[in-house]
């Protein structure tokens, strides 16, 4: 249980002071990620940045005591709110009962991950962080596609969503999300904007589903990404030379060929029959999705039998053709660590030189400044 009990305000809830966050008289459950937004200026800013139109049907996930809901009701045509906690549902009903908004608010009580979502134009939500990954993918699968989802996430999760190739946080979650949507970072939010404050900082992100939708065999695609991101320290060339990878790809390739030739199964069924189990399970991509330990699987070049070698040539041919062989899925921690070490050494040498020969010109200052900025990026 997090946060203390808040005193119940006297009078009707909607008559509360204009800028006071409403929290009813209920205690907050940490297990349900109940950190309500207490800063009304921040709530205004989220709604403004969301670009809600007066004709919009808005989906809100986890309305809690309704601080965001109130602003959404003022901005849009209708709000559909999905809330797991019956106490919060009751608070919401009490808060909006008898107000001009009440007939434009629908509250669905239940777990959003298990709820069939209705049509909506835009989703605006301050969600419990533990459902970030499955919720993102549920929204991306939703049909018909909505205009945008403006969601508060834990900062690191948000930075993973918006990461670019070469970034330290670029991972399977990034690729899978950006395949289906364009993602923008909107706002950094400090923990003190919540009651009770969470242990981490947050960020608001805008997710815009790509239209038309990009169709992939999701299991095959995700299995492929798992192979690519499994060994961040290795180049794609060395990953795809491993006997275990080649055998797995070949087994799946043969399955697909057999099924397609037989034309017995739909592509969905073909996808279901693929096996990537040796590269982790099929759960959503969580924050600690950094790939397994590098020593787990040995590179066994040259041990492949005749058929495997032929198949291996095919795979390596594709890598060479796309100029991917020497690339790795993301900047490895090891590479970053070496850059970091190099910068520390440069800084120490610069400092030593500075104390001996005080700065006289910019040329002398440059290595020091450069290494300082690179080390600060490493720490970020
Ligand atoms: C971070 S609080 C946000 C509260 C409110 N939107 C605000 O900003 O003040 C998250 C809310 O989501 C609810 N919640 C937690 N898990 C949920 C789930 N699986 N489905 C729907 N709501 C959930 C919690 O009960 C809580 O009210």
TrEMBL record:
Residues 1-17 have a biased composition (Basic residues). Its EC number is 2.1.1.-. It comes from the Eukaryota. InterPro entries: KsgA/Erm (IPR001737), rRNA_Ade_Mease_Trfase_CS (IPR020596), rRNA_Ade_methylase_Trfase_N (IPR020598), rRNA_adenine_dimethylase (IPR011530), SAM-dependent_MTases_sf (IPR029063). Keywords: Membrane, Methyltransferase, RNA-binding, rRNA processing, S-adenosyl-L-methionine, Transferase, Transmembrane, Transmembrane helix. S-adenosyl-L-methionine binds at residues 35, 37, 62, 83, 111, 126. The keyword Transmembrane applies. Residues 1-21 are annotated as: Disordered. GO terms for cellular component: nucleolus. GO terms for biological process: rRNA methylation. The chain crosses the membrane at residues 336-355. Pfam families: RrnaAD. Residues 42-211 form the Ribosomal RNA adenine methylase transferase N-terminal domain. GO terms for molecular function: RNA binding; rRNA (adenine-N6,N6-)-dimethyltransferase activity. Belongs to the class I-like SAM-binding methyltransferase superfamily. rRNA adenine N(6)-methyltransferase family. HAMAP family: 16SrRNA_methyltr_A. NCBIfam families: ksgA. This is rRNA adenine N(6)-methyltransferase. The gene is LOC100786901.
